[in-house]
Automatic annotation (TrEMBL):
Family matches, as InterPro entries: Ptyr_pPase, Ptyr_pPase_sf
GO process annotations (BP): response to arsenic-containing substance
EC number: 2.8.4.2
SMART domains in alphabetical order: LMWPc
Annotated organism of origin: Thalassoglobus polymorphus
Keywords noted in UniProt: Arsenical resistance, Transferase
UniProt name for this protein: Arsenate-mycothiol transferase ArsC2
Domain Phosphotyrosine protein phosphatase I, chain residue ranges per copy: 4-141
Taxonomic path: Bacteria, Pseudomonadati, Planctomycetota, Planctomycetia, Planctomycetales
Length: 146
């Protein structure tokens, strides 16, 4: 049986989609091939890398890339993790089933933080929410697509 091809898509492919890719690789590599990409490529967010490392997941080797770089991959499911990506999902991804699972934007929340630790707490909360989705709901989301 072939693996389900899953893409996590967000605006800049720097934080939420990268965390989701890291969790999915760790927890479901035997069942899915996972990718992340963005409508734009903003580079890896260092705080996302940091809080994932705290949880034992190394995403430092991942890279921020455009969704168009994955046009040749026969995706089964595209999971948009932010509203902007959901509203602006590239047309070539239309062959895949698109599912929206929104998460708060840690960099946006961190701008209002009074300290670096408070800022990182926003990243940690979203990291854990993404982990819970990947752990509990990702395979259910992908099963009906394959």
């Amino acid at each position: 049986m072939s693996k389900t091809q899953v893409l996590f898509l967000c605006t800049g492919n720097s934080c939420r989609s990268q965390m989701a890719e890291g969790w999915a690789r760790l927890l479901h590599r035997d069942k899915i091939d996972v990718y992340s990409a963005g409508i734009e490529a903003h580079g890896m967010n260092p705080n996302a890398v940091k809080v994932m490392a705290e949880a034992g997941v190394d995403i430092s080797g991942q890279s921020s890339k455009l969704a168009s770089s994955l046009e040749d991959i026969p995706l089964d499911v595209v999971i948009t993790v932010c509203g902007h990506a959901d509203e602006n999902c590239p047309g070539f991804l239309g062959k895949a089933r698109v599912v929206h699972v929104g998460f708060d934007d840690p960099p946006k929340l961190a701008k209002e933080a009074a300290s670096e630790e408070e800022a990182l707490d926003h990243y940690r909360r979203v990291r854990d929410e993404i982990r819970d989705f990947v752990t509990n709901d990702l395979l259910k989301t992908t099963e009906s697509a394959s």
